Amino acid sequence: MSVITEQLGFDALLNATDAINHSRKIERETAHLPNTMSEALPFYRVLLKQHHAAILVANVDEAMHLRKEAYNLARRLNGGKAGILANPSSPGNVLDRESAASHDSVPLWGQSGSFVIDAAGVKVRVELEGIFGIGSSSLYWPGFSAHAVEFDKPFLSPTGYRSFLGVHAEPVPGITPDEFTRRIIEAYVTHELKRKLMPVEDKYRNRDRE
User: pTM for this one?
Assistant: First the structure.
């Protein structure tokens, strides 16, 4: 057997061993979690309530720990594999979708939700991301998007849409998702827009609206 062939065989053995060790590590880390969706959904909904409570008292460590638990839960449901948000049927997306807040109600911290607020003198539909949202594993505050409700009135942008991702702000106890999004939008209007809202352009007014 050539040296190259021997090396390739050795590399394959190492890769297989690494894969087995990784699988065992994941099993150890997630063994305490449900492994079926029917069991995972009620578990996840309790976790959401705990996460909401942690945010309300500005307990950053507990909130981030619970988010890690949520990711581990989705990973266990996904057979220990990556891709927990790969498609609509992936575990992370199912957990998020099946546990989202009802339409037009303010969600718990960690729930996805769609609701309307008054901010900076305009009505805004907020689409708030949940635990599995972009950057939630490293950023304390969730991202959200703002959509115009009254297209014939000035808004935050000429498109009737504005995304707020990567919000950097100190943890504040007692703040709810509707109050948080209101404060962020009003700060944006004050400091970035200099209090000057703008009309929504005609080409964006004929889109499907809620």
Answer: 0.85
